[in-house]
Amino acid sequence: MKRKSKTIIELKENGKIIFTTGNALGDSIDIILREEIYSSELKKGRITETGIFKKQILDEIKKIEDEVGETDIFVSINDTPSVHKKRILIKTNGRKIKERDITSMESLIRDSLTKKGKEVVHIIREGFSIDGKKVSTPIDERGDRFIGSFLVFTIDDKKPKLIKRILNKKLSGFFIEPLLVFYGLKASFSKNFIIVFNTNSTQIIFGRDNSPRYVDSLPLGVNDIVRDLSYILKISPRDAERLLYKDKLLDSRILKAEDYPIAIEKKVASMRFLEILEFIENRTERISFNFFPEEVVICGEGAKLKNIKEFTKKFFDLPASLGEPDEFNCELKLDNLQMISTVGGFKLVKMRETKKRGLMDSFINLMERLFD
Question: How far apart are CA 48 and CA 262, in angstroms?
Answer without folding.
Answer: 42
